[in-house]
Amino acid sequence: MSKTVMIVDDSTTLRQVVRLALEGAGYSVLEGADGKDALSKLTGQKVHLIVSDVNMPNMDGITFVKAVKQLPAYKFTPVIMLTTEAGESKKLEGQAAGAKAWVVKPFQPAQLLMAVSKLIMP
């Protein structure tokens, strides 16, 4: 059975790149266009990992991660922040919200897949 990863990013192109890399590695993929959209799609199904952008309209990534961690079904779901933000303060804010890893764009798909395989829950 394949593991499910949710990608949350307001860039359609970026979601496609990440989706192709993940599907190529055998994962199933759910997509959210921003934090609000992604939250509306988390309806209790098993999601093994979330990859989220930080800067998005409607609901940014940090607010989204905090909201996800309030949901009992997703409280322990690991989150990777995929972002252009390389600043220490943003990283700390992300970690405080519950993000487990921080991948800076532009990224290599192989680099992201390594982070995913390290964090994904059995």
From TrEMBL:
Modified residues (4-aspartylphosphate): 53
GO process annotations (BP): phosphorelay signal transduction system
InterPro entries per UniProt: Bact_response_regulator, CheY-like_superfamily, Sig_transdc_resp-reg_receiver
Keyword Manganese: no
Keyword Electron transport part of the UniProt annotation: no
Gene3D superfamilies per the UniProt record, alphabetical: 3.40.50.2300
Response regulatory domain residues: 4-120
Matches recorded under SUPFAM superfamilies: CheY-like (SSF52172)
Protein name from the UniProt record: Response regulator receiver protein
